[in-house]
């Protein structure tokens, strides 16, 4: 099969429509849950200082207006599900959700990144051409078939997430020492039926090895029709079990629902038929036999190029850690945005010393005066956050009238239960260092 032949091959648009509806619904539930738990105030309004990503220091919470960002984001999820002004809705969701994600680096989670990635991908796909308000109002927009690649790229993105998560588990601590699961699992000893087993060492090894095999194999088992049903059952069991063992919010349910994309269009048509019974709008109106292909005017090649470049970046970004020396889990250089899910248990302390460079007078900072307990916990083990906080302290005390301010930190970190070790060079004035893409040579070797 040539590339042109593949690009013009079509499949039923019901797959994209079902994915769109369920994705939007899950995002709405996730945002409502976030509000109900009081996390907007706790994470984005109460703190006095927020950690930023390189190049995005301008992305900051807006006080009480932060609630408006969440409200706009929530409304956009409704537009996504209903396919109402879909392009505007999905772009708005991507921008507002990613803005929320970037407001404080402290709250980084892989599944937040996954949602932003998936939302960006959905901008360029014809997900509103079937069973949507837009297609109902505009007959020229309405089609029953879409290019097959528009469904396949979602499968590929999910495959990247799973496979790279599996590759990351091929490391000494995870497979040979069963860490950090050996540390975490005993904490769930009170679970019914399996709680007693979780305290046994062999169970940690079983979970570590099966988790690695699962992540590496599941995309291929889902792609192959003879194993698809069993593979999906494994997906459900795996994610429900991880939800029971660890406080990871909505992520397991999001992954379960997204994995439905691997099934044939008939499954998605049945999902739409079930939705139709609830809202009273049959999908048969949209079965007009029409299709769009990659080369016709209904769907331009520009989408292929954008999606293609985006997916290439997704394949390359997780390997950027190879550009840095020393232990990835110690320095965390290249750790984020690479699908490394729950691979380490890291804790530490960071005591900051303010020194007058001329007189030598010094005093120590109580981090609780500037950071929440959650921010302090995260900052203490992540070099980029330590140096950013050091710059904040430098500016704060300089503005208070202190002269010739130097910032030093005495820090100790334990990784996966090992003995605590010195983390940051205590002789380096962090006010003179910057958070860059380069190697942070003031992080002590592991």
Q: What are the salient characteristics of this protein?
A:
446 residues; alpha+beta; 3 domains; two-stranded antiparallel ribbon; 18 helices
In short:
The protein has 446 residues and is of the alpha+beta class.
Instruction: Give me the side-by-side strand order of the main sheet.
Output: 4-3-5-6
Question: What is the tally of beta strands?
Answer: 6
Secondary-structure class: alpha+beta
N-to-C CA distance: 50 Å
User: Which residue ranges are poorly predicted, with pLDDT under 50 across at least 5 consecutive positions?
Assistant: none
Return the average pLDDT rounded to an integer. 94
- Number of self-contained structural domains: 3
How many strands, what sense, and barrel or not for the largest sheet? 4 strands, antiparallel
State the helicity in percent bands: 40-55%
């Amino acid at each position: 099969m040539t590339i042109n032949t593949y690009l013009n091959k079509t499949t039923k648009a019901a797959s994209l429509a079902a994915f769109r509806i369920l994705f939007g619904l899950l995002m709405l539930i996730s945002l409502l849950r976030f509000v109900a738990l009081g996390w907007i105030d706790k994470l984005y309004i109460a703190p006095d200082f927020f950690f930023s990503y390189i190049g995005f220091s301008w992305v900051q919470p807006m006080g009480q207006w932060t609630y408006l960002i969440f409200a706009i984001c929530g409304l956009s999820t409704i537009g996504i599900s209903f396919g109402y002004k879909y392009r505007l809705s999905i772009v708005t969701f991507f921008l507002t959700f990613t803005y929320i994600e970037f407001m404080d680096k402290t709250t980084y989670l892989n599944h937040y990144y996954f949602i932003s990635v998936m939302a960006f991908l959905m901008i360029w796909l014809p997900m509103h051409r079937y069973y949507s308000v837009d297609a109902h109002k505009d007959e020229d927009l309405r089609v029953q078939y879409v290019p097959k690649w528009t469904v396949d790229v979602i499968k590929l993105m999910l495959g990247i997430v799973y496979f790279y998560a599996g590759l990351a588990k091929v490391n000494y601590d995870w497979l040979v020492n069963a860490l950090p699961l050996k540390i975490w699992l005993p904490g769930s000893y009170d679970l019914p039926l399996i709680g007693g087993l979780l305290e046994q060492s062999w169970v940690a090894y079983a979970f570590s090895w099966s988790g690695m095999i699962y992540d590496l194999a599941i995309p291929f088992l889902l792609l192959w029709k003879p194993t698809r049903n069993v593979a999906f059952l494994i997906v459900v069991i795996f994610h429900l079990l991880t939800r029971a063992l660890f406080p990871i919010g909505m992520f397991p349910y999001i992954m379960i629902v997204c994995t439905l994309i691997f099934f044939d269009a008939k499954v998605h048509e049945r999902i739409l038929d079930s939705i139709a019974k609830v809202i009273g709008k049959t999908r048969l109106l949209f079965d007009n036999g029409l299709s769009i292909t990659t080369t016709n005017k209904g769907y331009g090649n520009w989408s292929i190029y954008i999606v293609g470049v985006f997916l290439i970046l997704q394949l390359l970004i997780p390997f950027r850690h190879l550009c840095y020396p020393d232990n990835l889990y110690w320095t965390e250089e290249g750790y984020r945005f690479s699908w490394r899910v729950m691979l380490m248990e890291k804790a530490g302390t960071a005591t900051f010393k303010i020194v007058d460079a001329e007189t030598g007078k010094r005093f120590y900072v109580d981090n609780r005066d500037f950071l929440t307990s959650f921010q302090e916990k995260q900052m203490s083990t992540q070099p980029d956050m330590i140096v950013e906080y050091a710059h904040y302290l430098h500016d704060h005390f300089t503005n208070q009238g202190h002269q010739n301010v130097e910032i030093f930190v005495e820090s100790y970190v334990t990784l996966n239960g090992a003995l605590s070790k010195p983390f940051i060079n205590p002789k380096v004035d962090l006010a003179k260092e910057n958070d860059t893409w380069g190697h942070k040579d003031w992080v002590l070797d592991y």
